[in-house]
Amino acid sequence: MSAGMPYGLQAMLKDGHKHLSGLDEAVIKNIEACRELSKIARTSLGPNGMNKMVINHLEKLFVTSDTAVIVRELEVAHPAARVVVMAAEAQEREVGDGTNFVVSFAGELLSLAEELIRDGLHPSEIRDGYQKALEKCLEWLNEELAIEGTETMDVRDKVAVAKRLKGTLSSKQSGYEEQLASIVAEACVDVCPKKNAKNFNVEDVRTAKIVGGNINDVQTIHGMVIRRNVEGSVRHVENAKVAVFGCAVDTQATETKGTVLIQSGKDLEEYSKGEELQVEKYIDEIVESGCKVVFTGQSFGDLALHFLERKKIMAVKIPSKFELRRVCKATNATTLIKLGKPKPDELGYASKIDVVEIGDSKVLVLKQDDASRVSTIILRGATANAMDDLERAMDDGINAYKALMRDSRAVAAGGATEIALAKRLSDYAKTQTGLDQYAIQKFAQALELVPRTLAENAGLDATSVIASLYAAHSSSNKNNNRMGVDVSGDQETVDLCESAGIVDLLEVKHWALKLAVDAARTVLRVDQIIMSKQAGGPGPNDARAG
């Protein structure tokens, strides 16, 4: 090889690439990145969790404790930390809740794995130990720790559903969980399919944010809330047939191009009169069908609006095609692509449509007395940030209802489930003879993260709380296995959380454990990081030559 020529990896890749390998450069650096991400999320865990103020690349401000939003808007660049972020995103898509646990627990597992690596264990032995621990945890979770009687639940019983959703909402809007759980339950049960509840679609429950009022003014509408006023003067209809047009309600252009030659004022007058008669004919045909409300995705012409007013027909313009589809779904109407007389099966129905003033906004409220396929939660708040955070809490509640369809079982909240698993894992680790027993023991120690963090965020002595929990779980009393951290501010720090109606969904815990461990094991499997040179020229902050 000639002098000065690169060799090895340097010869294979372009100049400007980065290559990190070995224990200190790759494995430990990856663990440090994930641990830092975990520290950010950890203090937001539980009802006393702190909010984070995140400003994204578009300078939009987010004030929230929702980890899914935090990790998404932070735009994490480190490849190992991105693995944990992707696990949190998968948890959000799967069950809509538990993202904080995924990020915090994955970071804690990796942090404790670093101690084992420095003690001489190989990452493969740690991975094997973590996998064994996960399998045992999922087994105990499904067979021993599910609360008796929760395996069967009527998903159309609003009171029962509200009780099950309280745990999800208490960590987002502490103090208002009971009120909000009832609202979410009502909205979800209203649109739950009558034949097969598993076909419930979270998109059928919408939210409408209107500035003003407070959280006590939040309410559910059995139908839709459209943040627009009507085009004409008709503001109230009842038992109305509804027509939905995708085209403009105006004079229709011909399908072929043509030129009209007008030679006199009389020709112009006759041409205008012909246009007017054509529009009147279209409106008369709509009236003949029995329609009382016309929705359009485009616009109303002045002539068309004039004739609609004369016939006392409500006119509503909805520019959003997605909103127009939801109107069709809520009223069971068909979108018409051409102006004309709608067929009976193309018309929809609405029990009542009103223009209502909420705060300083005029909104159109479409209500259905009987079964509606869409329901809307009206969110009120003093600021846009407060309503955004409330909307995220509602989304978590709606997704939790979807998870109830798959598995209605619940487990004890307040760190009780984690301590129960940790105690069993510690005993199980002592029965193992291989080096993976140390990883299993660390897994059990990592599970203490939840009750410890709940106690710290509530200003309690975490060490004392953990000791009290282990003492309670060592008792022969079966109920004591469900003792969790009490953050209500009472003297006792350990209590039965389910007595206050706070439980966690087993489905959420199952996926959170699985995804957190998978993320940790993936990071531990990496021993080299190779990054190509980034495309493009210098960034806006780079020094410019010359």
UniProtKB/TrEMBL annotation:
<keyword id="KW-0547">Nucleotide-binding</keyword>
<dbReference type="Pfam" id="PF00118">
    <property type="entry name" value="Cpn60_TCP1"/>
</dbReference>
<keyword id="KW-0067">ATP-binding</keyword>
<dbReference type="InterPro" id="IPR002194">
    <property type="entry name" value="Chaperonin_TCP-1_CS"/>
</dbReference>
<dbReference type="InterPro" id="IPR017998">
    <property type="entry name" value="Chaperone_TCP-1"/>
</dbReference>
<dbReference type="GO" id="GO:0005524">
    <property type="term" value="F:ATP binding"/>
</dbReference>
<dbReference type="InterPro" id="IPR027409">
    <property type="entry name" value="GroEL-like_apical_dom_sf"/>
</dbReference>
<comment type="similarity">
    <text>Belongs to the TCP-1 chaperonin family.</text>
</comment>
<dbReference type="GO" id="GO:0005737">
    <property type="term" value="C:cytoplasm"/>
</dbReference>
<dbReference type="InterPro" id="IPR012721">
    <property type="entry name" value="Chap_CCT_theta"/>
</dbReference>
<dbReference type="GO" id="GO:0140662">
    <property type="term" value="F:ATP-dependent protein folding chaperone"/>
</dbReference>
<dbReference type="InterPro" id="IPR027413">
    <property type="entry name" value="GROEL-like_equatorial_sf"/>
</dbReference>
<keyword id="KW-0143">Chaperone</keyword>
<protein>
    <recommendedName>
        <fullName>CCT-theta</fullName>
    </recommendedName>
</protein>
<dbReference type="InterPro" id="IPR002423">
    <property type="entry name" value="Cpn60/GroEL/TCP-1"/>
</dbReference>
<dbReference type="InterPro" id="IPR027410">
    <property type="entry name" value="TCP-1-like_intermed_sf"/>
</dbReference>
<dbReference type="GO" id="GO:0051082">
    <property type="term" value="F:unfolded protein binding"/>
</dbReference>
<dbReference type="GO" id="GO:0016887">
    <property type="term" value="F:ATP hydrolysis activity"/>
</dbReference>
<keyword id="KW-0963">Cytoplasm</keyword>
